[in-house]
Amino acid sequence: MNTIIEPFRIKMVEPLRLTTPAERDAILRAAHFNPFLIPADDVLIDLLTDSGTSAMSAEQWAGMLRGDESYAGAKSWFRFETVMKEITGLPHVLPTHQGRASERILFELLGGPGKVIPNNNHFDTTRANCEHSGAAAVDLVIDEGKQPQSRHPFKGNMDVAKLERLIDEVGADRVPLVMLTVTNNSGGGQPVSLENVRAVRGVCDRHGIPFFLDACRFAENAYLIKLREPGQSGRSVADIVKELFSLADGATISAKKDGLVNIGGVLLMRDEHLAARANNLLILTEGFVTYGGLAGRDLEAMAQGFREVLDEHYLEYRLRSVAYLGEGLIRHGVRIVEPPGGHAIYVDAAEFCDHLTPDDFPGQALLCALYRHAGIRAVEIGSVMFGRIDKATGKAVHPPMQLVRLAVPRRVYTQSHMDYVIEAIGEVRANRQAIRGLRIVEAPEVLRHFTAKFAEA
Ligand SMILES: *Cc1c(COP(=O)(O)O)cnc(C)c1O
Questions:
Q1: Given ligand 1 and candidates 216, 260, 447, which is best to mutate, with the most ligand atoms within 8 Å of its CB?
Q2: Are residues 352 and 437 in contact, defined by beta-carbon separation less than 8 angstroms?
């Protein structure tokens, strides 16, 4: 059989609310042309993020009822800790309320003024937490990772020569850790190869620098390794995942992605002393070491979710349904970041809106067009998210790509939902010259994409 089906059936449904174009126009204006400010009930297909938007399984919901809410040493904690150790082999497991809490603790311990922290591409919260500590966040993805049309199978890889050069330039003592984001969310959801992880590990070993994974999508990355990396097709995903983590000194994870839950995170560490210091910070701001800001039932749902995500039938369906969306858009002439990544399709908004310049925020303008036309919500990954004003010159500095990310929530939408999205974007494309640029009216200094207000130019 060639048909890859959704490997689940649906037993609880949430109705979707249809709106008229006139209603959507008014909603968009009220939200200051920022989809983050649109109430979810006014969205038809929500591709804003795959984070925390998964549908949980019957077994996860059963776990929610079993949750042990003891303050210290709850059964749910031990179940969660056991699963995380089993999957990753890392000995110290710290529960956090989400990924950025893990990042904040890690960078408070290892970051600080004068430090330089390389990554393939820092995710937005990772960069913000790194910089908040006073450290500089440096992106060292391979050149192919910045070219939307390159079909390199592992566009999330780090440029190892650039890493060597950076360490030589600033000195190993100023590099407190090296990170790799798997899959590379800000760089198009592109995977990192095992070979690259080993190479980065090698560099870290030579200089005595700890190596951490930002492992939010470790299972999707491992499945893409199985599909694309020579010599890996015969291995189980669980085995590849084990090797990935065996190469790291620790990991920050948001369980809201491959953990298949709506809230939760993890900080994993190999070093006992560092873990002890991290536990002190955890107690200070998250919660006691056996719950870390979560309810016992959340720990149950995570324990089950991290197991389920390694199911290869699920991963086959997951990766295939994202690729299906990408292929449909390509048929309409839309340029996307190729090959399709693990959790999302990234549309090249600079090409889509080639009548606009980066100063017009083409990605944000495209988001608004998609919402107006079809009630679809997506997110901009371009000059709104990563652009900034140079303090010295007062000029806008733009990132290399203007992307619109269509993130696919896990186990939530069916193939016909994706068909609707493909058709709608094809229609927007047919009339793309009508898309108007935007200007920022009001924006905070950090993470401005969440709350910035815009007006049509
Ligand atoms: C989501 C995400 C984070 C942050 O996790 P939160 O749970 O949203 O705090 C960090 N890194 C990557 C790559 C992510 O995708």
A1: 216
A2: no
CB of 133 shorter than 6 A to ligand 1: no
Specify the residue for token string 């913000």. Answer: 128
Going by alpha carbons, the residue nearest to atom 4 of ligand 1 is 99
Distances (CA, A) of 38 to 20, 25, 436: 15, 11, 19
pLDDT band at 446 (very low <50, low <70, confident <90, very high): confident
Question: Please, are residues 135 and 113 in contact by the beta-carbon 8 Å criterion?
Answer: yes
Q: Is the CB of 184 under 6 A from ligand 1?
A: no
Q: Considering only CA atoms, which of 187, 121, 199, 122 is closest in space to residue 160?
A: 199
CA 255, 406, 226, 126 torsion: positive or negative? negative
218 lines ligand 1 (CB under 6 A): no
Q: Which ligand 1 atom minimizes the distance to the CA of 184?
A: 13
Nearest residue by C-alpha to atom 12 in ligand 1: 123
The confidence score (pLDDT) of residue 391 equals: 85
Please write the tens of the pLDDT for every residue from 51-94.
999 999 999 999 999 999 999 999 999 999 999 999 999 999 99
Q: What residue has token string 């699920």?
A: 314
Could you tell me the domains of the chain?
21-50+311-456 (3.90.1150.10), 58-308 (3.40.640.10)
**Cβ density class 97-119: b for 16+ within 10 Å, e for less:** bbbbbbbbbbbbbbbeeebbbbb
CA of 180 to the centre of ligand 1 (A): 13
Burial 425-435 (b: 16+ CB within 10 A, else e): beebbeebeeb
* pLDDT tens digits for range 194-247: 999 999 999 999 999 999 999 999 999 999 999 999 999 999 999 999 999 999
- Cβ atoms of 350 and 337 within 8 Å: the answer is no
Provide the 10 A C-beta neighbour count for residue 264: 29
Phi, psi of 316 (to 5 degrees): -60, -50
Distance CA(391)–CA(382), nearest Å, equals 19
3-class secondary-structure state, position 441: strand
The pTM of this model reads 0.94
Tens-digit pLDDT profile for residues 239-257: 999 999 999 999 999 999 9
Answer yes or no: is the C-beta of 265 below 6 A from any ligand 1 atom.
Answer: yes
